[in-house]
Amino acid sequence: MLLSECPAGVAHHVHQVEAPPAHQRRLAEMGIYPGQNITVMHRAPFGTRIVVVQHQRIALDRSTTQHVTVTTIGA
Amino acid sequence: MILLVGHPNVGKSTLFNTLTGSRQKTMNAPRTTVTMETGTWRLDDTTTTGLVDLPGTYSLLPQSPDEEVTAQEISRLAEKSAPDDLVIVVLDATALASSLYLLRQVQQHGATIIGALTLNDVAHTRGSTINTAALAHAVGIPIVELNPRTSHGINDLAHAVTQHLNAPAAPPAQQKITPHESSPEHIFDWVASVLDAAEVNDTATTTPTDTIDSWLLRPWLGIPLFFAVLWSTFHLTTTVAGPLQDLAESFITGPVTTGLLALTSALHAPPWVDSMLVDGLLGGVGTVLSFLPLMVIIFTLIYLLEDSGYLARVAVMGNHVMQKLGLDGRAILPLVIGFGCNIPALSATKTIPDSRHRLLTGLLVPFSSCTARLVIYLFLASAFFPNHAGTVVFLMYLASALTITLGALVLSRTAFRSAVSQPLLLVLPAYQTPRLTQLGRAVFIRCTSFITRAGVLILSLSLGVWVLMAFPATSEYSIGDPTMPAHESLFGATADTIAPIFAPAGFDDWHASAALITGFVAKEAVVGTFATTYGVDEPQDPALAGDLGARLRATFDESSGGHPGAAALAFMVFCLVYTPCLVTVAEQRRLFGGRITALAAAGSLTFAWVLAVVVFQVGRLL
Fold this sequence. Notes:
The complex is a heterodimer.
Chain A: E1 11-17, H1 21-29, E2 37-43, E3 49-53, E4 56-60, H2 62-65, E5 68-72
Antiparallel strand pairs in A: 1-2, 1-5, 2-3, 3-4
Chain B: E1 2-6, H1 12-20, E2 24-28, E3 35-42, E4 48-53, H2 65-80, E5 86-92, H3 96-108, E6 113-118, H4 120-125, E7 128-129, H5 132-139, E8 143-145, H6 154-166, H7 184-197, E9 201-202, H8 208-216, H9 219-266, H10 271-308, H11 310-324, H12 332-337, H13 342-348, H14 355-364, H15 371-384, H16 389-413, E10 425-427, H17 436-470, H18 490-498, H19 510-521, H20 525-534, H21 546-559, H22 564-577, H23 582-592, H24 594-619
Parallel strand pairs in B: 1-4, 1-5, 5-6, 6-8
Antiparallel strand pairs in B: 2-3, 3-4, 7-9
């Protein structure tokens, strides 16, 4: 499932991050890389999502959330 | 030398202000527009040390010029490996994992580190318990818990630093770090082991900030509120600041001028001294002073937006529109404020973290049509288009928005290509109640910087204009002679000289070029200059152009070869695009340096001339 389609409040695993290398690196530095937990906290205007990764609230826009795939934890 | 490093929005600047007080200054990193704050920290009665506040960053693998400066300064310090040198890494307790990530990178550079754990109170409210001693033990460095907003723990930090300075440990040996060891995954494994060893207990719960955001980031509430914040900011910098500005100015033109004139007459000073002191010196001082209330208001607003945490939400909301123009989401604030006044708008670019975006926005702000320019539009529209004045004024605002858009699109695709549109990736700080003491200190520091750094240039330009106005071009009059007609002064001669430049735009007349010269000083002066040069009373209401309008129409009719309307439009467009006033020049120079300011002024004059010529040449065909 794409992160952009994720319901709010449910924890997921990051499965894959597809982004230009520099952006992918920065996402990893914020803790967004395969295997990590991620939860959508708020669905903000214009497709922006506020996600929780390692307890921090991070705002990501649609261009990012549409390129991160996640899997349900336990599936 | 001590470097202060940490994430953006963790209270690093507040900590820096608390540690250095007003013993600080802003400097540019070599060959960049990136600014660093440097200051002196008085550790105790006898010991002081130099302190540098580096741009906030999440990582030492830089992705912007500002982050690059931070990474370079840390490398430089580590390579020097002087025993007194130290890096204080500010750790955010609410984002401990990524804070430790940054700390680990600094450690891998081989720098000696003291950790400063902030926001532990906020982390505590959401159920995290961090044992500072256990954390320090797990990382292997001293870590001090502190709150820069209340100054709690500041003495502990000073104590830890003093201890290091008194018994400097040998800096850790520089090790070769393999790409694997510096990979995010590897560092996060280390972070996890540290969090484990320190028994950091983090039961993630919903925080008060989450509850607030669940309302403020909701489209139907968040967007109207966002516009309400923009609207109030605009009004505070225009309708509220206006009367205060007038008050400050009338203080200078009233009692101060009277007092000074009494003094010079007691000393039997020649008339030109009076003229220089009143028109040159006090004119400049009055300008600086009249902007002071406005600067206090804007610096207070900026501080409240930053410190409360709402600015990060502005970045999120503004991102969607601004990104299309290649700008940072936060750029919406200065561009909106600019329609009130460009000077606080330029100051508000400080809220943009990436120096390239800051500069790009700073170059676009002058195209926001400020209220001073509205007076020119009202006057010319009523003089030349009495039946369509409203439409013409509206078109000028449309032209302003289009110029900003066009400027953004062109610049972000050329000179600023490297800065353009990184996707939004922003850590949202927790909401906090701003503290009055810290607010007062930050506003005081910024206002002092404005007065000292912009004030000098304003004063010298003001004296330069006085020389033009007061010195006669012929020997018929003496310096500062009040009976000298404007045309006989150096100013009139200059206006005559440059007038032919505007022939292709249809207004090659000295009255027009004279108004443009004073318009460079302040757009408020344009209509007044027309009145002076024609020797006619200035209309009380600019929308009723009257006799002055008729005189100007006759002039433009002649200079444009029978197309006065097209020439008037071209003149208005020129006024919209060229340098707004000398205070904006001074503020641009304070923020971006002299070279860029000179280039920007030359660029906007050229751009304004080209647009004016296009408007006139197209207009006269219609």
